[in-house]
Design a protein that fits this description.
Length: 155
């Protein structure tokens, strides 16, 4: 891969990371149940928000790994064992995110069921699980291709 497209994709990853981080900080302040809450109450007394922040760690880890992988691609060093480990770690990060979403959906059904309309939450969970599943599959395919190419180069 040429250096220009790799730098462009790295820049896009940085902007995605900043946008998601800003959204994670901004969204709780406009949430309906936090309309009259102080910042302390919003960020330190909401266990769901703490779980959401913990669940975002694998997302940011996978962004970092993708950034490193694109850096290697820009230097034409993609075919390496480190790239293979990074792709595997990205795949596992996505699987962990799917697990967090599934646990959140199960909690949503058990805690909120019957009291409130949960269709929006379920739809967002399905969307996030679908997107992260697609990324996990893509990482697995790239991992397999890279593994095959590395085995061909050894022969």
């Amino acid at each position: 891969m040429k250096r220009g497209p790799a730098v462009f994709l790295q820049t896009a990853i940085i902007f995605v990371g900043i946008a998601v981080f800003a959204f994670l900080l901004w969204e709780p302040t406009i949430e309906g149940r936090n309309a009259h809450a102080t910042l302390f109450e919003i960020y330190f007394e909401d266990t769901f928000l703490a779980c959401a922040y913990i669940a975002s760690i694998p997302f940011f880890a996978s962004l970092y790994l993708a950034f490193k992988l694109l850096g290697r691609a820009g230097r034409n060093e993609v075919v390496s064992s480190q790239s293979l480990r990074d792709l595997r770690a990205i795949k596992y990060c996505m699987i962990v995110i799917i697990g967090f979403v599934a646990a959140g959906e199960a909690t949503l059904f058990m805690v909120v069921r019957g009291e409130d309309d949960i269709a929006g939450g379920v739809a967002m969970g399905i969307l996030v699980a679908s997107l992260t599943g697609a990324i996990a599959v893509a990482a697995a395919v790239f991992e397999r291709v890279l593994q095959n190419r590395m085995s061909l180069e050894r022969q």
